[in-house]
Amino acid sequence: MIPDTIERTVVINATPERVWSVLTEPAFLGGWFGNGDPVKVELRPGGVLIFDHGVHGTIPARVETVEPPSVFSWRWSQGAAGEEPTPSNATLVEFTLAVDQATGGTRLTMVESGFARLGLSADEVADRHRANGRNWPGKLDQLRERFEHAEA
């Protein structure tokens, strides 16, 4: 069976509105998934989102959902650098933000889906799924730590 979804949840010590403002900030996204330069982003459904990975090229994405402060998603190519996302080469990354009742902070859930629909061999899909699955915990920790350092 080809794996299709990665899901991770993190609790962040900040309101959903504050987390949303950082999660959609071009400078943060550029450091989080790029070479450090702010991303180009049109924060609207259908808008362009471009991650610059320096020597590794750019990764274009399409914004899918913008529902402040609760849902933000994009579709990005799992193919070669610079390849526009399409249904057969891209996964959907969706962030859902909600108040965490136990802490009063934000429960952020990230779901990346669509691996099974990639136009790649089963081995390549499994490799992408495994690599992305290993990377998301660290990325979500970086987001959480941004707020911890801001409070210190």
Task: Count the beta strands.
Answer: 7
By helix and strand content, what is the structural category?
A: alpha+beta
**Largest beta sheet: strand ordering:** 1-7-6-5-4-3-2
Number of helices: 3
Query: Mind describing the biggest β-sheet?
Result: 7 strands, antiparallel
Mean pLDDT equals 92
Shape: globular
What Rg, in angstroms, do the CA atoms define?
15 Å
Indicate the percent of residues in helices. Answer: 25-40%
**Would you list the SSEs in sequence order as H and E?**
EHHEEEEEEH
Q: Strand fraction band?
A: 25-35%
The low-pLDDT segments are none
Straight-line N-to-C gap? 46 Å
Describe this structure in words.
It is a single chain. This protein has 152 residues and is α+β, with helices and mostly antiparallel strands. It contains three helices and seven strands. A seven-stranded antiparallel sheet has the order 1-7-6-5-4-3-2, with helices on one face.
Quick overview of this protein structure:
This protein is of the alpha+beta class. 30% of the residues lie in helices and 33% in strands.
Question: What secondary-structure arrangement, pairings included, does this model have?
Answer:
Elements: E1 5-12, H1 16-23, H2 26-33, E2 40-41, E3 48-52, E4 58-67, E5 71-77, E6 90-99, E7 106-113, H3 122-151
Antiparallel strand pairs: 1-7, 2-3, 3-4, 4-5, 5-6, 6-7
What attributes characterize this protein structure?
about 150 residues, seven-stranded antiparallel β-sheet, about 35% strand, alpha+beta
